[in-house]
């Protein structure tokens, strides 16, 4: 890809065909779309968090492209290639920050965009210095709910520190690329990210709890490994921690909304790893306990149902914790969250069984976008108690029925032709 003077040369192929960057950019687009949608309803409390998610996701996409660049040996051979990638990264960052700033100015959430930009630029620089730091992108998203507390505590100094941090990190990034070279540490990060879906969680060792969860979920966790058990255990723990922080500091953290999104992402990662590691299917088939291909398909489907039950149990547990802490949400909102999470996860699992490559798995993210928009829109409507809202439960029940059908259909498509194919 030789640049011909245009900064946009190859931008679609480089940024929107690469599954790593497009996954993060899609998450950022989701946050921006939800922020715009909520702004029409007048709910300005969560707009800052959504805009921050957009900026942070864009920063993660840029960091991923830089890691990919450093992991590619031929990048230094192609004239002006690194400079072109850097210019495109700056252009994408500028466009995203500008769009978020326009919405933020209208909704008094501009400080969130500044803090997120400072956090994202710092993350990019750290990833350039130490590529393995990219696996900490999970914690990058966990910092978003705490921005409100920092901004309220230091309203003036936050502006100054954010602006200084952005300028400093941009200068450091530019200096780094003046002497950029191939990095051996970046290659395993790139390869592992493609297989594991760019997630990292702390190693919980081989404790009894993790072992029991792994046995309970087998064989749905065969391709993704212990990471599935750690995510399932870590998700409710983080949610309870956020609930405690929100109750202590009177913060409005959309915990149930985040629980629903991460539950669907976990379901998507199950099939992402299955497609990426499809060569291991033969090893799974050779394990004792399966009566041929149909037996393996049946066991995998049953394990999917167990995974779905665990995720739904986690959501119900967090709802119970929030109710004990005195959450003002009513039964209608809780029922809406439970049902929408159920049909969202069921759709992702069903469509994941049908998927044969990583691009098709990425398309299942449309379910996440639709479910997020539906949940946000209904939550705005449920604030108006002057009208009957029983139709919300009816629609969710209909969608749940369709999702169950998609889940059953996915079972018939899983390894339909050959176990040696995804």
UniProtKB/TrEMBL annotation:
Alphabetic keyword roster: Membrane, Transmembrane, Transmembrane helix
Signal peptide: none
KW Iron (keyword) present: no
Top-rank taxon: Bacteria
Transmembrane stretches, start-end: 21-41, 47-67, 88-106, 112-128, 135-153, 159-177, 222-247, 253-272, 305-327, 333-354, 361-382, 388-409
Protein name as it appears in the record: ABC transporter permease
């Amino acid at each position: 890809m030789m640049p011909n003077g245009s900064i946009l040369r190859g931008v679609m192929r480089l940024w929107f065909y690469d599954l790593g960057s497009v996954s993060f950019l899609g998450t950022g687009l989701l946050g921006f779309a939800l922020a715009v949608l909520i702004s029409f309803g007048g709910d300005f409390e969560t707009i800052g968090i959504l805009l921050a998610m957009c900026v942070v996701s864009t920063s993660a996409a840029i960091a991923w492209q830089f890691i990919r660049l450093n992991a590619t040996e031929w990048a230094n051979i192609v004239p002006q290639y690194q400079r072109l990638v850097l210019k495109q990264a700056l252009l994408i960052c500028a466009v995203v920050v500008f769009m978020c700033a326009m919405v933020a100015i209208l909704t008094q959430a501009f400080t969130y965009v500044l803090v997120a930009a400072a956090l994202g630029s710092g993350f990019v620089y750290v990833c350039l210095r130490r590529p393995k730091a990219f696996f900490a992108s999970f914690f990058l998203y966990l910092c978003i709910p705490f921005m409100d507390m920092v901004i309220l505590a230091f309203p003036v100094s936050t502006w100054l520190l954010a602006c200084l941090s952005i300028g400093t990190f941009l200068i450091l990034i530019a200096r780094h690329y003046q002497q950029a070279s191939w990095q051996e540490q970046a290659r395993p990060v790139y390869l592992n990210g493609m297989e594991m879906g760019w997630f990292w969680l702390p190693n919980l060792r081989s404790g009894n709890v993790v072992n029991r969860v792994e046995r309970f979920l087998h064989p749905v966790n065969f391709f993704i490994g212990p990471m599935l058990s750690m995510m399932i255990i870590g998700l409710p723990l983080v949610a309870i921690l956020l609930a405690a922080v929100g109750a202590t500091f009177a913060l409005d953290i959309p915990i149930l909304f985040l629980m629903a999104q991460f539950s669907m992402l976990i379901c998507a990662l199950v099939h992402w790893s299955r497609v990426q590691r499809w060569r291991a299917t033969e090893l799974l088939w050779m394990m004792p306990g399966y009566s041929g291909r149909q037996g393996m398909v049946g066991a995998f489907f049953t394990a999917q149902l167990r995974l779905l039950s665990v995720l739904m149990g986690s959501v119900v547990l967090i709802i119970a914790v929030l109710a004990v802490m005195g959450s003002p949400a009513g039964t209608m909102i809780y029922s809406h969250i439970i049902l929408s999470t159920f049909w969202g996860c069921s759709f992702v699992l069903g469509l994941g069984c049908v998927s044969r490559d990583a691009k098709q798995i990425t398309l299942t993210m449309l379910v996440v976008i639709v479910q997020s928009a539906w949940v946000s829109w209904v939550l705005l409507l449920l604030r108006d108690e002057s009208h009957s809202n029983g139709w919300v439960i009816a629609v969710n029940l209909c969608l749940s029925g369709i999702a169950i059908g998609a889940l059953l259909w996915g079972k018939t498509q899983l390894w339909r032709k050959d176990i040696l194919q995804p």
